[in-house]
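Why should sequence recovery work at all? Because a backbone constrains its sequence more than one might expect. Tight turns favour small or flexible residues, buried strands favour hydrophobic ones, and helices have their own preferences. The token representation captures these environments compactly. In the example below, the structure is given first.
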């Protein structure tokens, strides 16, 4: 089980990939109203992979591989992404040190809002 310390939220996952694939079950659909976006995650290492999180018409879908045009691309190792989720790695420090690369930071805020992190 992964405990998101910063947000006092328990999510049962083993890998970052499982976290992303479980998002449709964890997100309040009301938070998706009026949002159209396409996040592409490039998570290197075992338990990672290339995944797309697409939001359209109030629905969030997760796909294996890159699909469509990315509104935001997130690159990290699976290990560092999991540390971010656990609150063990500061997102700003991760970006400054190259452990996390985000192509469109303002778009990434939508993702944080969907998860209730903001």
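From this structural description, the recovered sequence reads:
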């Amino acid at each position: 089980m992964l405990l998101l310390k910063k947000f006092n939220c328990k999510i049962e996952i083993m890998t970052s990939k499982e976290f992303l694939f479980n998002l449709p079950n964890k997100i309040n659909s009301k938070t998706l109203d009026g949002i159209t976006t396409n996040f592409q995650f490039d998570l290197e290492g075992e338990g990672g992979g290339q995944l797309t999180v697409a939001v359209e018409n109030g629905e969030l879908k997760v796909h294996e591989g890159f699909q469509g045009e990315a509104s935001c691309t997130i690159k990290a190792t699976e290990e560092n992404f999991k540390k971010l989720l656990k609150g063990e790695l500061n997102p700003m420090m991760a970006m400054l040190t190259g452990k996390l690369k985000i192509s469109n930071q303002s778009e990434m805020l939508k993702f944080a809002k969907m998860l209730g992190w903001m």
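A few observations help interpret the result. Residues 1 and 12 are 4 Å apart (CA to CA).
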